[in-house]
Backbone:
């Protein structure tokens, strides 16, 4: 961006041909992140055009909007940051993969999740693809049940479900 100030908007409220998107790094971020971790949000949003999204609050069909933005304005890079474990936030990551599929061209992008509101971790686009296929995830759990102990470190829902069995 040509200015030091970060531009922020909601993705559904942003025109796909808004000039500020052109040749910029766009941060597609969970709308709750500035509340969950204001310091992390400030750090990752610096110098980027920020598009807030909340699939729990609005339509989760972001892929068409993203594909139109990318086709129209050719952003330099798309960075997606969501809260790990949120079933709603997952849709943001999947939408970027889907937009790439719709466009039939490579999208320069990075995916991240925020663990327990504190730590940021990079995620492969292939991890997002696999997560959509529960049969594959199920096979992975059957072959590597130890992954459930890792899940127990993060998921209150999983830990409660074990107590209900």
Residues:
């Amino acid at each position: 961006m040509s200015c030091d100030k970060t531009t922020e908007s909601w993705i559904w409220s942003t025109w796909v041909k808004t000039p500020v998107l052109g040749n910029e790094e766009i941060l597609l971020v969970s709308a709750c992140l500035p509340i969950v971790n204001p310091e992390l949000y400030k750090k990752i949003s610096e110098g980027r055009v920020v598009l807030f999204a909340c699939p729990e609050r609005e339509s989760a069909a972001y892929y068409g909007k993203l594909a139109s933005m990318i086709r129209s304005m050719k952003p330099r890079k798309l960075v997606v940051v969501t809260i790990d474990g949120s079933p709603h936030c997952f849709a943001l990551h999947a939408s970027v993969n889907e937009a790439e599929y719709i466009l039939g061209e490579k999208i320069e992008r990075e995916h991240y999740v925020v663990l327990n509101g504190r730590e940021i971790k990079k995620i492969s686009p292939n991890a997002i693809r696999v997560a959509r296929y529960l049969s594959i995830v199920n096979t992975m759990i059957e072959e590597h049940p130890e992954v459930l102990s890792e899940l127990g470190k993060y998921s209150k829902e999983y830990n409660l479900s074990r107590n209900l069995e």
Notes: The helical segments are 33-36, 38-45, 62-73, 90-103, 125-131, 134-143, 147-152, 156-164.
